[in-house]
Amino acid sequence: MNRRDFLLLRTDGGAVTLSCERLYMRFLDSQLDGTTSELFENLARDLRRITAVRLIDPSWLSRDDLRSQLEPVLAAFQRRGGRVER
User: Fold this and answer.
1) Using an 8 Å Cβ cutoff, are 71 and 42 in contact?
2) Cα–Cα distance between 10 and 18 in angstroms, integer?
3) What's this model's pTM, rounded to 2 decimal places?
4) Across-strand partners of 54?
5) How far apart (Å, rounded) are the C-alpha atoms in residues 61 and 51?
6) CA neighbor of 3 nearest in space, from 47, 27, 12
7) Dihedral sign (CA 82, 86, 76, 17)
8) Are 82 and 53 in contact (CB under 8 A)?
């Protein structure tokens, strides 16, 4: 399986843990192969199945272009009642 085909979300109690480092690495890969929109569409789809997400190592989100893609996904998740822990 291609490692860019999915974003590893690890469950930890009632929340799902998202490694910002892994997200960053996949984001860089997606820029090279033109699949950035698919990466964030897949993340948004995955977040529809859960109620809480815990971001691990959010310092990896310092790039503006990464944040500009991620923030709308997280905002939509929160509007649906999801909880984001940073």
Assistant:
1) no
2) 7
3) 0.84
4) 17, 85
5) 21
6) 27
7) negative
8) yes
What number of other Cβ atoms are within 10 A of residue 15's Cβ?
Answer: 17
Instruction: Look up residue 77 and give its two tokens.
Output: 């998740």
> Measuring CA to CA, how many Å separate 83 from each of 16, 27, 51, 74?
10, 23, 6, 9
Cβ-contact 51, 14 below 8 angstroms: yes
Q: Which residues pair with 15 in a beta bridge?
A: 12
Helix, strand, coil percentages in the chain from 3-state DSSP, rounded to 5: 55, 20, 25
Q: What is the pLDDT of residues 11-62, one digit of tens each?
A: 655 578 899 999 999 999 999 999 999 999 999 998 888 889 999 999 999 9
10 compared with 40, residue with greater pLDDT: 40
pLDDT of 80 > 70? The answer is yes
DSSP state of 80: T
